[in-house]
Amino acid sequence: MVCFIQLSPKQVQEFKQILKLLKSGSIRAVRVKTNGENTKFKVRCAKYLYTYICADKAKAEELKKAIPKDIHVVEIAKKAPKAE
């Protein structure tokens, strides 16, 4: 019998910790979601999904540059409001 346990995402609070995760070899994919004031990074590793919310745009750009080139990155921009 195989039992699958769904693990909830882990939120990373420290900038240095997310940099350490990005340099580890267990990353599979990264999603970068940008809205008006925050940039959210969702880092899929072998076991967990880690999330980091960055309010500083300079730090967000630094994190984008720190992502290894061979990792699949999906950038999601804020949706435009619907016209009525």
In short:
With 84 residues, the chain is α/β, with parallel strands linked by helices.
Structure description:
A hairpin with a 3-residue loop joins strand 3 (39-45) and strand 4. The protein starts with 9 loop residues before the first strand and ends in an 8-residue tail after the last strand. The protein has a single domain (10-76), classed as Signal recognition particle alu RNA binding heterodimer, srp9/1, CATH 3.30.720. It has a 5-stranded mixed beta sheet with strand order 1-4-3-2-5. It is 23% helix and 33% strand. The chain has 2 helices and 5 strands, in the order E-H-E-E-E-H-E. With 84 residues, it is of the alpha/beta class.
Radius of gyration: 14 Å
- Kindly estimate the percentage of residues that lie in beta strands according to DSSP: 25-35%
Helix content: 10-25%
Low-confidence stretches: none
What would CATH call the architecture? 2-Layer Sandwich
Question: Mean of residue pLDDT?
Answer: 86
Largest sheet: 5 strands, mixed
- First CA to last CA: what distance? 53 Å
Please tally the β strands and state the result.
5
Strand order of the largest sheet: 1-4-3-2-5
The number of helical runs is 2
- What is the string of helix and strand elements? EHEEEHE
CATH fold naming: Signal recognition particle alu RNA binding heterodimer, srp9/1
**What is the CATH first-level class name?**
Alpha Beta
Number of domains: 1
